[in-house]
Amino acid sequence: MAAMLVTVTLLLCVLGGQAVDLLRATVTSGVPPPVPRVHCWCSSFPNVTLCSWPEPSHLPQTHYIATYSERHEPPITNNCHLIPPSHDSSSSSSSEQLWHCELPNLKLLTDYIINVTAVNSGGSSSYLSSFMLEDIVKPDPPVDVQVSSDSTSNLLVKWSPPSNWTNLHIFPLKYQIMYQQENRGTVSSVKLGPFERTEVELKGLTPGRVYGFQVCAKELLDLGKCSNWSSPVNITLQRTKP
Ligand SMILES: *[C@@H]1O[C@H](CO)[C@@H](O)[C@H](O)[C@H]1NC(C)=O
Ligand SMILES: *[C@@H]1O[C@H](CO)[C@@H](O)[C@H](O)[C@H]1NC(C)=O
Ligand SMILES: *[C@@H]1O[C@H](CO)[C@@H](O)[C@H](O)[C@H]1NC(C)=O
Ligand SMILES: *[C@@H]1O[C@H](CO)[C@@H](O)[C@H](O)[C@H]1NC(C)=O
Ligand SMILES: *[C@@H]1O[C@H](CO)[C@@H](O)[C@H](O)[C@H]1NC(C)=O
């Protein structure tokens, strides 16, 4: 069978966003791997940046080449340090196995290009994207969220910063709280904050109602995004004074 050479270039310009993604698939013969679905984020500013993408489940053996370079400099490419999926049998088999790669020591205010190329016997497909470190900051969620009450209408919500945001004293975090309440079968949610402290007292809540609290963390000067919400912590307010 004559080898085909097909090159598909897709330009997705995300208007208003910072990311410009270029997806390129080069097909030589057989079935090439899909373009990896890569997601990059800085979980501890400024020195911990990771990319991850799911491992395809049912295709021939695929390996990856992950590199990054500065966009406007002479083309020096650095290897992104690859970490294969752990294939941890204790984790649920339905959850996707993720590849990771680490991008150490990125410079501030610099445009980078990441290239994650999936290669198998059928060909290769590259994911290309540009980013600036400042735009992809996203801490891990706050931990140890605790909600307590010593009255019928007041609550104290406390939490701790994510432990792997290691430069907390130089780059402090601020927090948002979201709570959900159920009233006659209708769930509504309320967002509060940002707060720079790690505890908040809420007053004037409704006795007997169930409240579910979640917290997210964002870099104090608004770099990047708020973390994922922490998993909900529920509390039922007493109807009578404890
Ligand atoms: C990032 O910086 C912090 C504090 O300077 C340090 O403790 C940590 O080991 C560094 N992490 C990496 C991956 O370099
Ligand atoms: C991306 O990396 C692959 C594998 O190293 C390489 O063949 C390809 O030319 C790179 N693409 C760009 C646009 O640099
Ligand atoms: C954030 O949530 C998304 C979607 O649920 C998930 O894929 C991702 O792994 C989460 N990230 C962190 C840092 O927990
Ligand atoms: C951060 O630490 C938590 C445990 O505290 C761990 O589960 C998570 O994988 C770490 N995140 C990163 C991006 O290293
Ligand atoms: C908290 O409440 C929500 C909504 O009612 C529910 O989905 C969730 O499972 C509860 N979580 C816990 C830990 O009980």
Short descriptors:
elongated; disordered N terminus; mainly beta; Immunoglobulin-like; binds 2-acetamido-2-deoxy-beta-D-glucopyranose; 4-stranded antiparallel sheet; 2 domains; 242 residues
In short:
Belongs to the type I cytokine receptor family. Type 3 subfamily. The protein is an all-beta fold and 242 residues long.
Written account of the structure:
The protein folds into 2 domains: 6-136, Immunoglobulins (Immunoglobulin-like); 143-236, Immunoglobulins (Immunoglobulin-like, Sandwich). By secondary structure, the chain is mostly beta strands. The chain is built from no helices and 17 strands. The strands form 4 sheets. The chain has a 6-stranded antiparallel sheet with strand order 1-2-10-9-5-6, with no helix packed on it. Strands 3-4-8-7 form a 4-stranded antiparallel sheet, with no helix packed on it. It has a 4-stranded antiparallel sheet with strand order 14-13-16-17, with no helix packed on it. It starts with 5 loop residues before the first strand and ends in a 6-residue tail after the last strand. The structure holds 2-acetamido-2-deoxy-beta-D-glucopyranose (NAG) (5 copies). One 2-acetamido-2-deoxy-beta-D-glucopyranose is lined by residues 212, 232, 234. One 2-acetamido-2-deoxy-beta-D-glucopyranose is lined by residues 65, 67, 115, 117, 126, 128. Belongs to the type I cytokine receptor family. Type 3 subfamily. This is Interleukin 27 beta subunit. InterPro entries: FN3_dom (IPR003961), FN3_IL27B_N (IPR056621), FN3_sf (IPR036116), Ig-like_fold (IPR013783), IL11/IL27_subunit_beta (IPR053073).
